[in-house]
Amino acid sequence: MVSVETVGSIFIKALKLVRNIINLVIIFLYRWGDGGEFLGIGGTWNLNEEKSADAEIVASGVMVGFLIYTGCHTIAFAFGTTKHKGLCDTIMNVVGTIMWIAVGGVALHYWKGYMSDEGFLYVNSERQVGIAMGSLCVIEGALYLLDTVLACIHYSKGDTDYTQ
């Protein structure tokens, strides 16, 4: 009979693959979401409607950094054992939850109130793509939270490397 841990391991591998795909979609929207031009996160309201460089640096760091981290982790999981989670993985999932939700929140805050220069249109494709990107960032944070909860469940059962 198949154990719950084996089914959970397969689910976690699929979850990591889904996170990688969503992360790639977010990066594409971030970079080319404004009709082939840079969309960005936004992050500040000012007179010239320029986006905050600080918010953009943090957002791009989160997107690219966690794409690399999750990609490497997915490859290691594909070739590794079903033994689940080290302490570093759990900490990175907590950090990923916080950072993705923060980036998504900044994007949603900026793009929700964005108004185009063209005839004061409140609904335009740039705004809709920005809101979609922010929503995907929050969903990505929720997936990291789910992975954190699963790691805590494995920790409570003693199925981790750092409990022995």
UniProtKB/TrEMBL annotation:
InterPro entries: Ssk
Transmembrane annotation, as ranges: 21-45, 57-79, 91-111, 131-153
GO BP terms, alphabetized: septate junction assembly
Gene name, Swiss-Prot/TrEMBL: CG6981
Coiled coil stretches, renumbered: none
GO CC entries: plasma membrane
Keyword field: Membrane, Transmembrane, Transmembrane helix
Keyword Transmembrane included in the entry's annotation: yes
Official protein name in the record: CG6981-PA
Statement: the UniProt record of this protein carries the keyword Membrane: yes
